[in-house]
Amino acid sequence: MNAGVKRDGVAGQMQMAALGEESGAAGQVTVAALGEKSGAAEQVTVAALGEESGAARQVTVTAQAEESEAAWQISVSAWWNRGSAALLRRALRALGLRLLAAAALLALLLPLAACSGGGAAPKAETGAAVEALGSAAEGEAGAGGTPAGSGNPGSTSGAALGGSGQAETSVGEAEGAEAGTPAAQNPPPGDEAALPGLDASGQPLVIGFTMDTLLEERWKKDRDLFRAAAEKLGAQVVVKSADGDDARQVAQAEAMISQGVDVLVVVPHNAEATAAIVSKAHKEGIKVLSYDRLITNADVDLYVSFDNVEVGRLQAQAMISQIPKGSYAYIGGAATDNNAHQFKEGVFDILQPMIDRGDIRIVYDQWSKDWKPIYALDNMREALAANGRTGIDAVIAANDATGGSVVQALGEQGLAGKIPVAGQDADLAAIRRIVSGTQTMTVYKPIGQLAEETAKLAVALAKGEKPKTSRWVNNGKIEVPSVLLPPIAVDARNIDETVIADGFHTREEVYGSGR
Q1: Under 8 Å between Cβ of 239 and 259
Q2: Where are any strands of DSSP class E within 226-282?
Q3: How do beta strands 44-46 and 59-61 pair?
Q4: 277 in the Ramachandran plot: left (φ > 0), alpha (ψ -120 to 50) or beta?
Q5: Is the pTM of this model over 0.85?
Q6: How confident is the model at residue 96 (pLDDT cuts 50, 70, 90)?
Q7: Lowest mean pLDDT among 96-110, 206-220, 370-384, 410-424
Q8: How far apart are CA 427 and CA 490, in angstroms?
Q9: Separation of alpha carbons 464 and 99, rounded Å
Q10: Are the beta carbons of 183 and 143 closer than 8 angstroms?
Q11: Following DSSP, what letter does each residue of 25-91 receive, concatenated?
Q12: Which secondary-structure segment (H or E) carries 232?
């Protein structure tokens, strides 16, 4: 192929060597791009050598093009191991190769599959790598190199990150996703430019979404809503859950960084420990968005959440409207989660003046390790044991999962429904408890809005843009640019107008089929 490319008098050379073996057959591809000043041309020669009954093959393709007065050549050598295709994709994009050159690479590499093993099927790793490179070269929007317009509802990750794609293809199932969760549909021809989730060459941006846990209903909703919002923009999402393990979350994030994601979105398990993720990502030029929970003591690029201090205020206001004087128990969340501290801050913003006047006494105040309901249950049992059946007038729980444990402990003493309980998250179980009268209120945070806003901002960060914000939150190191959405107090009077009207829960889920 003769393709003259000239730019700024700088010359470069590109070489790619890919070796593979299957059934005693070997293949090698060498790409050389040569240019000459004045009437320069590039010549690309692809030599594919295979051993099969002493036969050898050689393919030479030439194409010509001319532009400017400088020639350049670029050299890249990539071994076909897991992740190499993604690295090559990022290299091509960073170097700004023309679509012609990228398309040529695809056309030249496809014969390798036929050369290896005398036309036998290539190894899974090589096939997927070529497929991923094809996606990079042609700018296709389909996941894993699926041709545009195929409408294949396959994995939203995998081959786009290189290698066989098998590990990432099964991420949704491994982390609790439904196996049938559809991927983003390919845009109609000509509509690619309208999708903000595509990069300059038309490839989908890849968002790494590392989550603390998927054990709670709320976080499964976040995962599904965020993935849908990002795919609607044309981007792809790789999801990993750390199951509450700090080391696992850091390792998962490191893997995403090495595989070449364009931006990281993090729901931290431990706000302090995940600071390491930010540092490692920045070294590779990848920006980090802190989702719902703030990463502390790190140069986080953006924080998107609800006004968590206001969440606590709403809880306290609801309680004092029923119990303006009395003994309160506070069942906190995880001490390692910055959100838990913000919820508590909001609660005591409201309660402190009444505490100072002596109207309210805090008779129990304890964190619940890792937000786990079993620890909240132990805490509430301990609070009842220390204060007796009549020694607690109201309970504020840091979320609905811990609130469920509070109601369980109260029920063991015959007190469920007799002592007001506040929670937050608007979990379905909590909404049902409100209907039955065992929980007083919750706080609804429209996570669909959170997911959509975060997807837009993540795409902007991936493109190197700087989103405009009007608020900042101190994380112990810097004032982090922040987008904070307003929460909504929910009780028995406004369930229909909030969580049901928004489709967060259905009427049948909340009330049963009889209503």
Answers
A1: no
A2: 236-241, 263-266
A3: antiparallel
A4: alpha
A5: no
A6: very low
A7: 96-110
A8: 11
A9: 22
A10: yes
A11: EEEEE-------SSS---BEEE-----BTTB---EEE------SS-----------STTHHHHHHHH
A12: helix 217-232
